[in-house]
Amino acid sequence: MTTREQILEAVLKNQPESMPLPDIGMFKGGHEDTVRKYIDIFKTIGGAAYLVDDLEVVKSMVAEQFDTTKRIATTLPEMQDIAELIAPAIDPHLYEDVELAIIRGHFSVAENGAVWLTEEVMGQRIIPYICQHLAVVLTAESIVPTLHEAYERIGLGDYGFGGFIGGPSKTADIEQALVLGAHGPLTMTVYIIR
Predict the structure, then answer these.
(1) Which CATH number fits the domain that encloses residue 174?
(2) Number of structural domains in the chain
(3) Contacts by 55-59 with C-beta closer than 8 Å and gap 24+?
(4) Which of 47, 49, 89, 110 is the most buried (most CB within 10 A)?
(5) pLDDT tens-digit map of 25-34
(6) What is the enclosing helix (H) or strand (E) of 63?
(7) Is 129 helix (H, G, I), strand (E, B) or coil?
(8) Which residues of the chain carry a pLDDT beneath 50?
(9) What is the DSSP code (8-state) at residue 78?
(10) Rounded to whole angstroms, how far apart are CA atoms 141 and 34?
(11) Using alpha carbons only, what angle is made at residue 76 by residues 71 and 85, rounded to the nearest 5 degrees?
């Protein structure tokens, strides 16, 4: 047995007993309009959010808001007429020039504007981070009031990769000047289907 294996075995033998998680009921959201709250919060973090009727409205808004002469990729089969379908099995480097990525989000959080994405909806892990502009399609009923409720929803999840994305990429590390698109998309748009 190697030293590494001995250390890992010792760690496994010395685990504390499992304890029940604390009651977080007091952190649950109220009965406020979570869709309106989400839209307002998302705008304050630099994103754009729109309440729409269906995917046909999303298609027309994409044509108005983005340069459709550049490469648009999507994971939504319903959007294939305006964008190429992302293929999970090809080399992710081939997506380096995606101008706009349109993907479905699992759900979002009203209190901070974050959207929960897993590789299942990304098509390729790199897509929401390498594109110039990111658009996410959600349903209104998928918005949860608080992050506590979001983590309850994630639960033990059966996914290999996932994360919250909250608005366009930004940093203010350099001379405290806000820079958008520093390490991800320049813009993030959320289309919320009623």
Answers:
(1) 3.40.50.10420
(2) 1
(3) 55/79, 55/137, 55/193, 57/191, 58/102, 58/135, 58/137, 58/191, 58/193
(4) 110
(5) 777 777 679 9
(6) helix 55-65
(7) helix
(8) none
(9) G
(10) 9
(11) 45
